[in-house]
Amino acid sequence: MDTRFRTVSRSLAGEILMVDSRTYNDRVVTVLVVLSLVWAIAGMAAGVFIAAELVWPTIDMGQEWLSYGRLRTLHTNGVIFGFGVSALMATAFYSVQRTSHVTLFAPRLAWFCCIAWNLAVLAGGISLLAGWTSGKEYAELEWPFDIGITIVWLSFAVVFFGTIVKRKVKAIYVSNWFYGALIIVIAMLHVVNSMAIPVSIDKSYSMFAGEQDAIVQWWYGHNAVGFLLTGGFLGMLYYFLPKQADRPIWSYRLSIVAFWAFTYSYIWAGPHHLHYNAIPEWVQSLGMVMSIILLAPSWATMVNGVMTVAGAWEKLKTDPAMKFIVLALAFYGLATFEGPMLSIKSVNVVSHFTDWTVGHVHSGALGWNAMITFGTFYFLVPRLVGAELYSVRLANIHFWLALAGTMLYILSMWGAGVSQGLLWLSLDELGELSYSFRDIMASMVPYYALRFVAGAVFLSGAILMFYNFVKTMENRTTVTRRIPEVRTARSAVEAVA
Fold first, then answer.
1. For residue 150, with 0-12 CB atoms within 10 Å meaning exposed, 13-18 middle and 19 or more buried, which class applies?
2. Which tens digit of pLDDT belongs to each residue from 359-380?
3. Which among 186, 249, 175 is positioned nearest to 223, based on CA atoms?
4. Residue 372 is assigned to a structural domain of this protein
5. What mean pLDDT value characterizes the chain?
6. Residues contacting 240, CB < 8 A, separation 6+
7. Are 379 and 245 in contact (CB under 8 A)?
8. pTM across the whole model
């Protein structure tokens, strides 16, 4: 028999499973995981510092680069694009190879994506600290960075879709549908929202103006949340949840239906950020209606996930990765219920421009995005380096720190937001505001102090996780894993001959 093949075994379908000498490209995955963890700690540390500034405003020592306005954009960009996108690239590269039974297409281009993306986030963060910003939410980087980001993102698309094109498996697994939607829609959103006229190397002006600019910005802003922080992480969920539970997804058909319902509904939801503004009333109403419709695909996915782990509850006692993934599902259900409710105008009149919205965002960011990433990394890192996790006890401590930090954060912002909304709506007998803006914000200090504590607790858990992974990876390199290839009996005989 040809020595290229390590094993020959008969599959359930009557075919012969043959493993050849080709291997997965996982070193780039390992590097992206490490970089994602570095950005998690850096971005969250910036978040904790700006939370402290709301309680003790003078701790910036008069330094402009430490001011709330500059550090806040560093926090959002570092967490979303450093931590989040690096994790999505890592898990996309890992899972697309295994669901396609091929090695990465253009592996050098994958390394370019890894290095160039993280250098762009680093340089962009420095530019934000220097006050170099376009002023658009989640799109603050100026035009030279926008061009660079476009090039890297298109490279990401080439690697991902190129791998799918050369797949050895006919079906395209559902996780790849979500990763593919992430890549395509974010490219479209980024290019359109970033269309600007440069006037210098550090300044440009949007090609849109007035209400058109607002609509385009929140078409981008909310769908960046939708297709990056939701759709992309659903791709992570649909691959790694069955792996962690050691069970197939409960309903593959439901996952496909949920994907298409999610894709067609989410793209229209952005205008709910612009209630009671100058945009047309029908656009606001459309955003509200489509947001409510989103309850169906979102909860379909949550139910699918919960039913998948229903037969693996025993693993929750011993597997910290499972604890994080189940908790992430719970917060996903919470956040995707709260979002549509906040889009209803009668609710939005209270929540608009308050910390209630901040609490909603972080119930998704901390409870859903961070938790599912932590759970995935606890599953993935030991397999990448071929070693047991250094300390399950530390991972369990991290779980409780993450849960405590998230709950404290959400509760503090719910309390602050509802208080702000109701106080701003309070009128005296003359129809004037009962409380000034200054008075209301002065009353927020206890809530902000609790948020600072919550952020510090959550950050301490992330630092503990990083230490755990450093010890797990110590003196180890990425394990080389061979690619299983399914051939028919006839082709197997021909190969052996």
1. middle
2. 999 999 999 999 999 999 999 9
3. 186
4. no
5. 90
6. 91, 95, 325, 375, 376, 379, 380
7. no
8. 0.91
